[in-house]
Amino acid sequence: MEQAVRADRPHALTTTLAAFEVTATSPSSHHARSWLRAVVGGEVVGVAELELPLTENTDVAWAEVHVLPGHRRQGVGRRLWEALVERARAAGRTRIGGEVSVDVDVAGAAHEFARATGAVERHREDHLLARLPVPGSPVHPAYEVVLWRGRCPEEHRASYLAMRNQMNADAPTGDLDLEPEVLDDARLSASEERLTRAYDVRVAAARRRSDGVFGGYSLLFVPHGTDYGWQDDTLVMPEHRGHRLGAALKAANYADLPAEVRHVHTWTAPDNTAMHRTNTALGFRVVEHMYEMDVAIA
Ligand SMILES: CC(C)(COP(=O)(O)OP(=O)(O)OC[C@H]1O[C@@H](n2cnc3c(N)ncnc32)[C@H](O)[C@@H]1OP(=O)(O)O)[C@@H](O)C(=O)NCCC(=O)NCCS
């Protein structure tokens, strides 16, 4: 996977071996994942992943296909795709979705391949990368930043869960028809437990000084043993917007990282003007275009 991806996506975020091992050996109860490999003359020349959501979006399967550069345009990708479709249908799925990323400078076949399967674009995001340190971004004086790593402390869990669910409901998915995932305390705990085995999980949250109400959070993952982090959610609750809390939370998380972490990845829809501006002000630049696509298989 790493070799196939790296060939035309120098800035791709790929899974680490440790993260893959957690996914493969201790399955989540909300997503079933399986892997296929294409073997030619005893050599693995391609791999594919199929993810079946088990709680929400049970009509969908998520797919990824990777073929080594020296073995492309020989039908290997198509064979892997057909095998994924067969398995997705057998699991009762009626559509397959995938994220297709294309470097802004290096030509790749991902988009052409996805279109050849009949998939259509439903949502677009930019993949941005920043080199640390980033310029500081002061916190509005009415708020204080609360940082934690790993499991969310008990006293903040109810507020954190409410914000996570607001994020899941609000996150833009364009024309992709998806139900939001709903987290409860047990599901959050299980996810924290699995994630901390492969990642340093860091949260920065903004708490209003006057009443202790949380106004937003930003979630960052640093894969163990790497020199980069990647941004997951950043949310500012509607009544707390307009104070540059998004930038302050991201910057607070980055400032707290160990010195060996040199880069941060993030993804933002190009029409999300507020977050795009926040990111560019922090020094992020667009390195890839990411298309979320899907195709009916029923
Ligand atoms: C995308 C990828 C999986 C294609 O693998 P592949 O084995 O070369 O694909 P196939 O030979 O089965 O091609 C199937 C169809 O895709 C399209 N396609 C594939 N590569 C193409 C290219 N370079 N230019 C134009 N169309 C292309 C064609 O329609 C092709 O059918 P054809 O050869 O009959 O014209 C491979 O390039 C890859 O691993 N890229 C990096 C990882 C990635 O981006 N994966 C896709 C995201 S999930």
UniProtKB/TrEMBL annotation:
Entry keyword annotation includes Acyltransferase: yes
Q: Where is the N-acetyltransferase domain?
A: 1-135, 167-298
The record's section on Pfam families has: Acetyltransf_1 (PF00583)
PROSITE patterns, from UniProt?
A: GNAT
Q: Where is the secretion signal located?
A: none
Q: Which domain of life is it from?
A: Bacteria
Q: Which UniProt keywords apply?
A: Acyltransferase, Transferase
A GO molecular function assigned to this protein is: acyltransferase activity, transferring groups other than amino-acyl groups
Protein name, entry field: GNAT family N-acetyltransferase
Q: Which organism is it from?
A: Nocardioides eburneiflavus
